[in-house]
Structure formats: structure tokens, C-alpha cells
Amino acid sequence: MNRKMAYFFLAACSILLLGGFSGCKKEGANTAFARIQGQWRLIQYGIDNNGDGVIEPYELQLVPSTTIKIYDFKADSTGIESNNDSTPNISFYWKLTGDSLWIATSIHDTTTYYVSLLNSSNLIILANLQVTTSSGNSSVLTENYFNKD
Questions:
Q1: Would you state the pLDDT for residue 13?
Q2: pLDDT above 60 for 72
Q3: What pLDDT score was predicted for residue 132?
Q4: Element (H, E) at 23
Q5: What average pLDDT is seen over the chain?
Q6: With a threshold of 0.85, does the pTM exceed it?
């Protein structure tokens, strides 16, 4: 009788363990890499015009509702930047490492962004861009707000 109980207990534990592990596999990955995939619409952007290293509320601009700028991040680490104007689409490669998003475009522009927020519906990225003006080179802080499209 004890032997039958031991076999029954062993079989029951095995079934529970296998069932528990198979349930874990069915859930979709909730990683930053998985969350960033898809189409993101630019809704607001900011430029640190006064150069103090902070983008104040008055430096933020809403993207007009008639303007559509979409970044499509694909699972194979490629993407497309598209607009609803006559600007041609720009293809890019991307890599997400920790809180850094690296984007290299087909027009030979490479930017590393700091990801300050990434969830299932919102993405906020910041970058220090090098700008050349008539008075020389300078670094400008930018901030971009996206909603999942």
C-alpha cells in the first residue's frame, strides 16, 4: 500500500511540475525588446533651446494632428520611419540595450537615445544631438514622446 501511495504521489508531483512549466511558456515575453516592437506615432517633441540641460514645458511642442510621423520597430531589428508628407521613408537598424536605444538610418545618421519610459502604449526617448550652426558646433538635448499606433 505504501508503495502505491509513493508512486501516486510521484506521478501527481510530476504532472503538476510539467503543467506549471508549460504554463510559463505560453505567456508572451514582457521584455523591453518585445514592448518596443510595432508602430509608434510621434505626438510631442522638445528641444532644449536655452541650453540649460533641461527641457522645460514651454520648450515642448505638440505634433499637429495633420502631421503623422511613425517609427515602425520590427522584430528583426530593422525599422521604417514614415511621414504623411512628401518626405521619403527612411529605413533604419535599431538595438535596445538596457536604457539605450541605438538607431542607424539609411541616410548615414546614427543616434543613441536614452529611454526614459517604455511600456505597452508610451515611449519617451532623449538624445544629445550635435548641431552645426554658423557659430560652431554645439550639443542640443532633444526629447520625443510617442504613443503606440
A1: 43
A2: yes
A3: 72
A4: helix 2-26
A5: 83
A6: no
- Region of 53 (left: φ > 0; alpha: ψ -120 to 50; beta: rest) is left
Task: Tell me which H or E stretch contains 8.
Answer: helix 2-26
Q: Which residue has the higher pLDDT, 26 or 59?
A: 59
Amino acid identity at 55 = I
- Under CATH, to which class is 32-148 assigned? mainly beta
Closest CA to 122 of 44, 63, 27: 44
The domain ranges of the chain are 32-148
Report the SS3 class of residue 96. Answer: strand
The answer to whether 59 and 46 are in contact (CB under 8 A) is yes
Q: Give the separation between CA 121 and CA 35, rounded to whole angstroms.
A: 9
Residues near 37 by Cβ (< 8 Å), separated by ≥ 6?
73, 74, 75
pLDDT tens sequence across 123-135: 999 999 877 777 7
3-state SS, residue 134: coil
Phi, psi for 115 (deg, rounded to 5)? -90, 110
Three-class secondary structure of residue 59 per DSSP = helix
- Quote the distance between the C-alpha of residue 9 and its chain's center: 47
Q: Can you tell me which residue has the cell 508628407?
A: 85
